[in-house]
Amino acid sequence: MRPFGERWRAPYACDPQATRGRLYPTPVSPTRSEFQRDRDRIIHSSAFRRLKHKTQVFVYHEGDHFRTRLTHTIEVSQIARALARSLGLDEDLAEALALSHDLGHTPFGHTGEDTLEECMAGFGGFDHNAQALRIVTRLERRYPDYDGLNLTWETLEGLVKHNGPLLDAQGRPTLRYAERGVPLAIMEYDAVQDLELATFASGEAQAAAIADDIAYDAHDIDDGLRAGLFGVDDLREVPLLDEILAEIDGRWPGLELSRRIHELVRRVITRFVEDVVAEGERRIAALAPESADDIRRAGETALCFSREMREADASIKRFLYARMYRHPEVMRVRAQADQVLRDLFRRFKHEPRLMPEEWQADLPKDDEPRLARRVADYIAGMTDRYAILEHRRLFDVTPDLR
């Protein structure tokens, strides 16, 4: 008999009964697998709850119908589970990784990350993946015996490496970290628990990563249309979207706008999911992996888009970059958000006593890098709303971000 809650999984899936364990040994649960426990710890974390009031592109008060980090995370989780189920991977690990992938994001979307990266130049920089690792290994303080969530090795590995290896075979930073190096927080933790930074992540982590891409494409189209940044027919310059719109209009001529948009978004998700499953099956069959480590050491991702859909994904992103992410109204609000966070960083760095008491604890004098990191940790954890309120508390004039 399988243990409680166990499902069938392929030989190359991560097995919760064969986990490489936790940094701090914990008794086995009689009702949940190790990956289910990770998922639950993530969901019950303070950082996860704060995703409700952190935005993707628009700020929190723009409207109730736009995505937040939380709603985006739920959509990524749904897609990641669907991919894992279709390919025989562990659904619970894929879900845990999808739920945790945005924990390290700042208020005000990518603007916040860019701002903190510049503010932290000279102090180790800022990277949202590294910040997510700090959250789940240090900053969450819930358990009496240790800081962090004490997640399994497989979840930590996937959290850090879901976009690919961080080091090459010679131990040099891979392309995305070639200029600035692998973030210090990751290297420090890797010295404590080896995450094998030169290998790919598990199939479950790859499912979460590509689910993130799919969700972004679909919901940014939806949010951009709702915000009036572009119209449905503007999307026809993207070949895949033009093809899908032709299908919809051919079957339901004169369909009301809201239903037309929904049908477009759901078909975009379906096309990408079905493509990843087909391409994943093809690559896995060629690789013939017999273990999760075979996926990690394959030398390339096993779960990805086909060549045709890679171009479709790139075309959608090019459209959204020009028509949404760089739209004058979005750029105006981004500039205001940048000002809010720069002001907060400078003020807290010069007057750390203005932070809550728990953020001042054990902060030694004359240690500027550590002080800067503490301030970055505090600001990165803020919601959009709290950042605005803190700015209003400390400054006479605060941008309205509208």
Automatic annotation (TrEMBL):
<dbReference type="InterPro" id="IPR006261">
    <property type="entry name" value="dGTPase"/>
</dbReference>
<comment type="similarity">
    <text>Belongs to the dGTPase family. Type 2 subfamily.</text>
</comment>
<dbReference type="GO" id="GO:0006203">
    <property type="term" value="P:dGTP catabolic process"/>
</dbReference>
<dbReference type="Pfam" id="PF01966">
    <property type="entry name" value="HD"/>
</dbReference>
<keyword id="KW-0378">Hydrolase</keyword>
<dbReference type="InterPro" id="IPR006674">
    <property type="entry name" value="HD_domain"/>
</dbReference>
<dbReference type="InterPro" id="IPR023023">
    <property type="entry name" value="dNTPase_2"/>
</dbReference>
<dbReference type="InterPro" id="IPR003607">
    <property type="entry name" value="HD/PDEase_dom"/>
</dbReference>
<feature type="domain" description="HD">
    <location>
        <begin position="69"/>
        <end position="217"/>
    </location>
</feature>
<dbReference type="GO" id="GO:0008832">
    <property type="term" value="F:dGTPase activity"/>
</dbReference>
<dbReference type="Pfam" id="PF13286">
    <property type="entry name" value="HD_assoc"/>
</dbReference>
<dbReference type="InterPro" id="IPR050135">
    <property type="entry name" value="dGTPase-like"/>
</dbReference>
<dbReference type="InterPro" id="IPR026875">
    <property type="entry name" value="PHydrolase_assoc_dom"/>
</dbReference>
<protein>
    <recommendedName>
        <fullName>Deoxyguanosinetriphosphate triphosphohydrolase-like protein</fullName>
    </recommendedName>
</protein>
